[in-house]
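Sequence in, structure out. First:
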Amino acid sequence: MWRVVLLLLVVLAGCKSRQKLGVNPYPNCKYAMYSKSELIEKLDSSVLQFEWIKLKTKVDAEYNDEKMNFQVQMRIKKDSLVFAKISKSGFTGIKLLATKDTVVYVDKMNKKYFSGSYDDLEKLINIKVPFEFIQNVFLGEPTFLYEKEGFQKIVEPLISYSSQSFDKELNDGGFNQVQSFTCDSLYLKTVGIIDSETKKEVWFEYDKRGDINGYSLNKNINVKGFQGEKQLILAEIELKRIKTFDDLDAPIEIPDDFEKMEIK
């Protein structure tokens, strides 16, 4: 189960539009003329601002035909730290603390722990992702995992940005990321991470955007993972509560009798 939880946590926290030059060929797509860099500039001015934030979620998951449900409580220090508690029926079974440099994972159910570099997470998901991805995935905010402009495709009501061509015959293979946004408001709708070499892919789908404790966020996040035709993971994350704070702590301890795990 710990690999499922880590995968969910990892793969699992508006301003006036500028005048654009040229004629927009998509009259029903307000932001059709935005390049990737212009999109990032637009979104950077409208992201949720906080020092610390506390999230409470409910997760229903299926992994290797095994169904499970649990609650995840998270504390996020902006761009610095993510702390998570995974509980079931009131019992906290797993704690995780991730910073830009380190990861500490404590499995109370099996009396095991892991403490190491943040880079070790790459061994779990076969892809290196920035720390910001962990906090942004729950907040429905985009994190581009590629540097160049990439490619754009518009199928109303969505604008999609990809690190590779949408034409499969022109794809270079290897890693690819796709992110789709609503045409009228630039709300994030889907994030896809694809590794064509291993034929693994993970998709996040955002749904039911609405008010949660005064913040406009997606109430549901659906996660789907595949390898070829085989389903690896299926999860529905329901965001239940959110609150911002000026300061919080992130307590995590490793009992002396716990066995250290190796991530392979």
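Second:
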Amino acid sequence: MKKSIIIIAAILMAGFSTKVMAQNTKTVAATVATTQILAPLGLTQTSILNFGKLTTSASSGSCELTTAGARNVSGGLFNYPSSPTNAAYNVTGEKNKAYTITLPTTITVSNGTPLQDMTISALTARCLSTAADGIVGTIDATSGTDSFKVGGTLTVAANQPAAVYTGSFDVTVAYN
């Protein structure tokens, strides 16, 4: 019986034992949160993408309009005296900040008859700030502006009907 009392006493003592822990807290004296608001980007078109006048033949061809404004024809296309122009844009925004240009993969130009549509591809840009083909420019640190030109390659089918062909495309600029 003495053993039973000792076992019961040990069980009761184990059930009533608890750990006492002190509360541990830490306070940081000053927490800082920051943000920077950038000037909104502005984009204004100053010139349209115009491949100028071309003549066709029984062979298909292409016309490249470089970002420097040079027009190069190949295949069954021939230059006709005219004044091609690059699409041109002015950009305004936060001084000394880089931005990226987003161009479409292709542009469709039409004379109103879908089976006669042509495609402009290989679009590229040349920023004044970089003086090289690419899609990244930098807003000028003094004026808060930059500009860029867009060129591309027009693909023309054999015996493409004579007409004026038009189309539209989206250009987007965003801070890096």
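Remark: The longest strand covers residues 145-156.
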